[in-house]
Structures are given as C-alpha cells and as structure tokens.
Amino acid sequence: LSFLCSVTNKKPTQASITKVKQFEGSTSFVRRTQWMLEQLRQVNGIDPNRDSPEFDLLFENAFDQWVASTASEKCTFFQVLHNTCQRYLTDKKPEFINCQSKIMGGNSILHSAADSVTSAVQKASQALNERGERLGRAEEKTEELKNSAQQFAETAHKVRFWWGK
Predict the structure, then answer these.
(1) Where does residue 99 rank: exposed (0-12), middle (13-18), buried (19+ CB within 10 A)?
(2) pLDDT digits (tens, 9 = 90+) for 35-82
(3) Which residues of 115-126 are buried (b: 16+ CB within 10 A; e: fewer)?
(4) Residue 94 CA to its chain's centroid (Å)
(5) What's the start-to-end Cα distance of the chain, in Å?
(6) 0.90 exceeded by pTM
(7) Measured at the alpha carbon of residue 14, what is the angle toward residues 56 and 85, in degrees to the nearest 5?
(8) Would you tell me how many other CB atoms lie within 10 Å of the CB of residue 94?
(9) Which of 49, 53, 59, 94 is surrounded by the fewest CB atoms within 10 Å?
(10) Mean pLDDT of 117-128
C-alpha cells in the first residue's frame, strides 16, 4: 500500500490523507480510504528503536494499520505528515508516539531541503549582486567612452573648421 498527503489550493485549505494501492503490473493507483487531516488523532510509529515500515494511524472514528514500502518511506511520510499538521491544523494536532526523534527533529528531510533551497537562493542572490556590480561598472565605463568620443568629435570638428578657413 502507498499513501498520499494532499492539500487543496481552494480556500479554505483542506488537507487529507489517502491510502492507495497499486496492483502488480499496473501503473495506476486505486484509492482505498481517505480521511481529512482534522480527523487524525494519533500517529504511532510502533517502535522508535527499530527501523520498520509498520505504523498505525488513529482517526476520529477509525483505527488503521499501515505498512510503508520501506522504513525510509515511513520516515519521509511522517515528516511530511508532521509538517502538514503543524501548518494546517490550528486546534487539535495529532499526537506522534513511538516515533524516532529524527522525524520531528531539526535534521528532517524537509529541513535539509529548506536549508538547500535557502543556500541556493543565497548563492543566486550573491551572483546577481556581483553581476549587478559588474553591469554598473560597465555602464560607467560606457558613459566615460561616450563622453570621450563626444569630446573627440567636437575637437575633430573644431580642427576641421580651423583647417577649412
């Protein structure tokens, strides 16, 4: 089974958790069950000391056992789910129990991705600033050359006028 954590772009924003299944030999997924994020009460990682793909989700009126493809996929799903809950749930946030500390900690995949994006933006900004400075110097040099050319043209005109007399 696979899972999706989706958020609509309509107002008000709605987030949902969808359990899907992909049958062998098929590229499409079939929706099994879907819950609104507000219905989620508890995320149970089952054993924080062991990398396992199993976990349980407790909803308002349902309990569902899940198995991710890998323990890593479970960890990524928990990070996305935790961050989605923090962002979109204002009142009742679900409890995350028996989860590895790295899931809610500062070293999450999402924080690493955010750090990478921030770093890339800073580098791009620095490159733009440097380019802007070079363009500014080029504009100054162009203005100097233009003034020099105008002075030369004026002098040449005076010389020609003087020789012409």
Answers:
(1) buried
(2) 999 999 999 999 888 888 999 999 998 999 988 888 888 988 899 899
(3) eeeeeeeeeeee
(4) 23
(5) 98
(6) no
(7) 45
(8) 19
(9) 49
(10) 62
Burial of 136 (0-12, 13-18, 19+ CB in 10 A): exposed
CA distance 125 to 106: 25
List domains and CATH numbers for the chain: 2-106 (2.30.29.90)
DSSP 29-98: -EEEEEEEGGGEEEEE-S-TTS--SEEEEEETTEEEEEE-SSHHHHHHHHHHHHHHHHHH-SS-PPEEES
Q: Find tokens 């790295």 and name the residue.
A: 102
Q: CA angle 159-154-137, nearest 5°?
A: 140
User: Nearest CA to 83 among 64, 105, 66, 100?
Assistant: 105
Report the amino acid identity of residue 135: L
Quote the CA–CA distance of 49 and 101 in Å, as a whole number: 10
Q: What size, in residues, is the chain?
A: 165
Contact 77, 68 (CB under 8 A): yes
